[in-house]
Amino acid sequence: MNDDDFGELSVVPGCEVKIVGDGDEVVPRGTPGEICVRSAMVFSEYVGNPEATKQAKTATGWFRLGDIGVMDESGKVKVLGRKKDFIKRATLKISPLQIEKVILGHADVSDAVVFGVPDQQLHEEICACVILKAANNDRGLEVRLAELEAWCSEQFPPEADGLSLKPRYMLLVKTFPSGNTGKVDRRAMRDLAMQKLGISE
């Protein structure tokens, strides 16, 4: 998933940056939140779409990027991913990219997409759709999936809430649906996974 890799945000002179929580409050350094910027260089409005402008910009001129990031003590901002892609499990916001990066480290995995699916108790649970590399031995898909799940159990120890970042659901697929830009359509992949798992909104 190299086209979804994120890095650091370069802050240019004359541009203010802050990281905010769900209530638009500034969060402590090192805490993930939505990245907001304010500058004379930021556009003033979406032409002909006041509702979109209202959602993207605050009354004091801050523009919500729609990205989740963290700011370190020196003021550098690391982008963690798109806000709409984050998994909301209980009180945590989980970056699917960090889980995908680990899964892609398995020798049998060709590609992986991680997203949240509805869960009655936790709001969302973690689901991974995985494309395996071509097999060079007689191991069946079920065996290879079981080996991958066991490996993930070792890679994802329990978090602060006592839960692991190991995907609750792991599905093997042959391809990922893509959008007009050629990137993976996470929403379509989520819908397909929910159908396979028998999960509804």
Helices and strands: which structural class? alpha+beta
| CATH 4th-level superfamily of the largest domain | ANL, C-terminal domain
Walk across the major sheet and give the strand order.
1-5-4-3-2
* Number of domains as seen in the coordinates: 2
Radius of gyration in whole Å, from Cα? 19 Å
- Write down the overall geometry: elongated
Distance between the termini: 27 Å
Largest sheet entry: 5 strands, antiparallel
Order of helices and strands: EEEHEEEEHEEHEH
> Uncertain segments of ≥5 residues (pLDDT<50)?
1-5
Q: The CATH topology of the largest domain is what?
A: GMP Synthetase, Chain A, domain 3
Task: Give the tally of β-strands.
Answer: 10
Protein name: AMP-binding enzyme C-terminal domain-containing protein
Organism: Nematostella vectensis
Domain AMP-binding enzyme C-terminal: 98-183
Characterize the structure shown.
By secondary structure, the chain is an alpha+beta fold. The protein is 21% helix and 30% strand. The chain has 4 helices and 10 strands. It has helices at 50-56, 96-103, 141-155, 186-197; strands at residues 8-9, 15-20, 33-39, 63-71, 77-82, 87-89, 92-94, 109-119, 123-132, 169-172. The strands form 3 sheets. A 5-stranded antiparallel β-sheet has the order 1-5-4-3-2, with helices on one face. Strand 6 and strand 7 (92-94) form a beta hairpin. Residues 98-183 form the AMP-binding enzyme C-terminal domain. It comes from Nematostella vectensis (Starlet sea anemone). It holds the Pfam family AMP-binding_C. This is AMP-binding enzyme C-terminal domain-containing protein.
